[in-house]
Amino acid sequence: MKYKDIIKDIKSKNFKKLYLFYGKETYLLDNVIKVFKESLNHSLLDFNYSILDGREITMDLLLSNVETLPFMDDRRIIIVKEFELLKNKRKNFTEEDENNLIDYLKNTPQQSTLVFIVYGDIDKRRKLVKELIKQGIVINCDRLDSTELFKWTKNRFEKENVDIGRQEIMYFLNIEDYQNKTSNKTLSDLENQIIKIASFTGKGNTVTKEVIDKLSSKKIENDIFKLIDAIGNKNSSLSMKILNDMILEGESPLMILSMIGRQFRIIIQSKQLQKVGYSSNVIAQKINVHPYVVTKALNQGKNFNNEVIVKLLNEVLDADFSIKNGLIKDTLALEIIISKFCV
């Protein structure tokens, strides 16, 4: 079965007893949890819905949750996130526990639905994984293919009450580069861009290529490149202008801070890997970014020694903490960092 068919079944309350969802697309995994939760009577969630940390759970706690009868409903749902025995780890479970669990899963209570969620890969060699494949529904939540991605994007724009044509959708997806193997973009990233574009466009209006260009994440990335170039060249006035322009265009200062931190992490990683002999393409594969980003990072790295980069990254962390705890205004925090490193 496909992901969309499973979601449809859950929404229709057509439950199976066992599920395993895994993969790198966190948006899809989080949506599974949301749909399961919404399938139950909201007023009875405290009794009929449990979400457990699979890295800390014990055998007794797991079984007691599955064995607990639903209250004033015909279904109880138990979500177990990051269960260690699905990832070739063994902290709280012995091999005997694993074998007992496998036997138990062959005959779980009819009124209980047990759902395993793994953010990343599973170990398909494990006996438990093989049993789940045999007894339940196992779905790999990886990147959407081109057809699924187009449909998802179209539906997501429609949900924001804006019109968008086929050509504009294709243009948006091409710019966002979600399907590039070296891209670390997720559906959550695309959703954030869609919300931003829809908000700028206005309900009932039509999304244009010009708006997509104006608000694209590639433009933001290029603006960050320009900002870091200006800081590296000790050009305080240009740095401040780029920062203010980004804020005027609606970018969140906290997001700008995060992007600055990300780029400097890429710079120091790229420099270190180049030092031991790796090419730009190999570095790109190792740190999961586009080769162009590595090339840009290595060029920018010529303006910053490692000591300065570490100091700047610490400043970014401190600023992030201070902003989130209301100790300083976000724009001021960015201006202080720029001023410090432009001297």
TrEMBL record:
Keywords: DNA replication, DNA-directed DNA polymerase, Nucleotidyltransferase, Transferase. Residues 19-141 form the DNA polymerase III delta N-terminal domain. GO terms for cellular component: DNA polymerase III complex. One of its GO terms (biological process) is DNA-templated DNA replication. Its EC number is 2.7.7.7. It comes from the Bacteria. It catalyses: DNA(n) + a 2'-deoxyribonucleoside 5'-triphosphate = DNA(n+1) + diphosphate. One of its GO terms (molecular function) is DNA-directed DNA polymerase activity. SUPFAM superfamilies: P-loop containing nucleoside triphosphate hydrolases, post-AAA+ oligomerization domain-like. Belongs to the DNA polymerase HolA subunit family. PANTHER family: DNA POLYMERASE III SUBUNIT DELTA (PTHR34388:SF1). This is DNA polymerase III subunit delta.
